[in-house]
Structure to design on (640 residues):
């Protein structure tokens, strides 16, 4: 469970996030939908403990990120917007490093890495040095290392950006599996169709503010449109920065 | 409960070591830049010293005008390894043009004045602006002075006066340097430069790569959101760079002294150096705090700067500042002053020079120099950790 309350953050004169509140319940996929620059990444970076909010709080399983950053981070697996991996290490070594940072080691860690390589269908690239990997292969490594400690809460910032059709389908499958395994999944996207097809719970964010949130049915009802994408456009007020 | 911070530092340090050692080209470049110095210095210095030695030992070619005016003087010169040559047509022009190094002119009046017991001047035509001839000029001047003194002494004796009356205040030079030094001593003055260069350049690429480089490749933010205290990242990365730099510095020191001890090198350079293992160990021991400080300062700079390029520029400036004092101290005759003990790199330069001369290092100076240097390093490291604890670290660049 991830909950943010009244989150505000500005960079100089730019107000990136203003009084954002929402929660992502256990065992559900919560989608943050919004155009580019709406404040999705900033919100996620605050939850992950990379940035500090000017106001408000973020909690992971009721642990305050600001007050107990490391405790909260133990319960989180994050695919951030910046997802560079180590090019001189193999996929397995990249994942193993993060596993060790989470205190895993030995046979248990190796077994977990094998499990992830299988889940993400990356066994063929497991022992290759990651230099020269395609975007899709790199994202797989970044997701594997985010999940190595089997975190109850998973944050994915635009996980399908830059992926081809097949990789996108595979990624959505992984997200569903995580939900089915009981994880809390919070993911962001500017692709309406993706959010509509995947999410149990949708938070629409524009200009740093939450403009609507609820299930797909609730949003359709609220906007008075039978089609979910029409409802999104109606709520946000424009299609700029959306797909 | 949480993971032991020490084991986390181990995990981080080990990953950085593996990751960076796989970057063969960078490791090679780093070692090359550090190990090339001893080689270059020895070759350069060796050539200089060899030229100098050869010039002072080889037969001197001396064109003389008026050989027939002073057969006695000519015989004397001949005895001291001087080849008497016929003079060029225009001696002044020949020296000016560099055709010959110098010309001795014995005037026709010489014989008459000499036999009357009066001062009988000779001329030594030389070009002071031509530095290549200074050794030859010096040699001829010394020989002529020797000859003059000898004749004067004989004349005094002939008059029943002791030649000792000519020397009212004899000066006796007493050399108190612990070992006979000369060229060997001068070449050892280069050791602090080599060691400081290695301390400031050995790990610089690695430090920039693991800080500014990691940010530029966008792997810093994912790393920092792991449940690890930020200081552990700084310390883990730091220890790897420190270890690598230390090894590079020891290698450069070892290479320099090893090269100087090879008989072929010794005979080529005409430099005989005898450094004991203890002296070398002392020099390396003295430099360890400098390596500690240099790497910490580089960490701080590379963590603060916006990108790799900027980080490289500023850490390179730091390197320059790091080994400049040693360079000046090797060239300029500056004596150690008490306040210099408090200046990192300057204090170590003096201490290493002392160790190379086989002197016992004063404990107080070693302790002060080490403490001050370590303190600067610790402050830099603490400042780097502060930077990592602020969100600026993931925002810049």
């Amino acid at each position: 469970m991830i909950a943010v309350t009244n989150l505000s953050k500005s960079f100089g004169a730019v107000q990136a996030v203003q009084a954002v509140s929402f929660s992502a319940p256990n065992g559900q996929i919560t989608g943050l939908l919004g155009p580019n620059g709406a404040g999705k990444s900033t919100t996620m970076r605050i939850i992950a403990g990379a940035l500090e909010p000017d106001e408000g709080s973020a909690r992971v399983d009721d642990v305050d990120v600001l007050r107990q950053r490391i405790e909260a981070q133990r319960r989180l697996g994050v695919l951030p917007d910046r997802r560079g991996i180590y090019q001189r290490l193999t996929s397995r070594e990249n994942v193993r490093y993060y596993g060790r940072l989470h205190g895993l080691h030995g046979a248990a860690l190796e077994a977990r890495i094998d499990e992830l390589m299988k889940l993400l269908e990356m066994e063929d690239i497991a022992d290759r040095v990651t230099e020269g990997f395609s975007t899709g292969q790199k994202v797989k490594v970044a997701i594997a290392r985010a999940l190595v400690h089997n975190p109850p809460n998973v944050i994915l910032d635009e996980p399908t950006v830059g992926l081809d059709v097949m990789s996108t389908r595979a990624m959505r499958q992984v997200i569903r599996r995580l939900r089915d395994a009981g994880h809390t999944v919070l993911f962001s996207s500017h692709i309406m169709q993706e959010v509509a097809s995947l999410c149990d719970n949708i938070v629409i964010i524009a200009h740093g503010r939450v403009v609507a949130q609820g299930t797909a049915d609730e949003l359709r009802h609220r906007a008075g449109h039978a089609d979910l994408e029409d409802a999104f456009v109606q709520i946000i007020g424009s299609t700029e920065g959306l797909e | 409960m949480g993971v032991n911070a020490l084991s986390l530092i181990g995990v981080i340090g080990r990953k950085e070591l593996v990751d960076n050692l796989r970057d063969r080209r960078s490791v090679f470049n780093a070692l090359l830049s550090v190990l090339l110095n001893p080689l270059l210095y020895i070759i350069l210095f060796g050539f200089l010293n060899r030229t100098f030695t050869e010039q002072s030992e080889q037969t001197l070619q001396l064109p003389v005008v008026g050989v027939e005016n002073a057969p006695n003087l000519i015989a004397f010169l001949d005895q001291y390894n001087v080849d008497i040559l016929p003079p060029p047509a225009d001696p002044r022009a020949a020296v000016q043009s560099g055709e010959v190094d110098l010309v001795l002119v014995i005037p026709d009046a010489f014989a008459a004045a000499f036999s009357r017991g009066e001062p009988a001047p000779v001329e030594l035509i030389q070009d002071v602006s031509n530095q290549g001839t200074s050794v030859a000029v010096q040699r001829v001047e010394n020989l002529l002075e020797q000859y003059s003194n000898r004749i004067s002494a004989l004349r005094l004796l002939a008059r029943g006066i002791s030649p000792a009356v000519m020397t009212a205040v004899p000066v006796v030079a007493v050399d108190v340097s612990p070992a006979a030094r000369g060229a060997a001593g001068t070449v050892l003055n280069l050791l602090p430069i080599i060691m400081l260069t290695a301390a400031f350049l050995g790990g610089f690429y690695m430090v920039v790569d693991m800080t500014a480089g990691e940010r530029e490749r966008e792997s810093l933010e994912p790393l920092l959101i792991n449940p690890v205290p930020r200081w552990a990242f700084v310390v883990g990365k730091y220890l790897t760079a420190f270890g690598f730099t230390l090894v590079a510095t020891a290698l450069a020191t070892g290479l320099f002294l090893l090269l100087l001890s090879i008989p072929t090198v010794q005979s080529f350079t005409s430099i005989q150096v005898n450094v004991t293992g203890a002296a070398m160990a002392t020099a390396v021991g003295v430099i360890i705090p400098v390596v500690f400080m240099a790497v910490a300062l580089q960490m701080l700079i590379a963590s603060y700067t916006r990108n790799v390029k900027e980080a490289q520029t500023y850490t390179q400036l730091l390197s320059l500042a790091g080994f400049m004092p040693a360079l000046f101290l090797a060239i300029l005759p500056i004596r150690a002053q008490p306040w210099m003990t408090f200046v990192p790199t300057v204090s170590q330069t003096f201490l290493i020079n002392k160790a190379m001369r086989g002197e016992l290092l004063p404990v107080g100076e070693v302790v002060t120099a080490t403490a001050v240097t370590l303190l600067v390093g610790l402050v830099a490291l603490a400042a780097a950790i502060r930077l990592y604890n602020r969100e600026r670290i993931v925002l810049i660049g």
Notes: The longest strand of chain B covers residues 60-65. Chain B touches chain A through 26 residues (CB under 8 Å). Residues 10-43+180-394 of chain B form one domain. The mean pLDDT of chain B is 89.
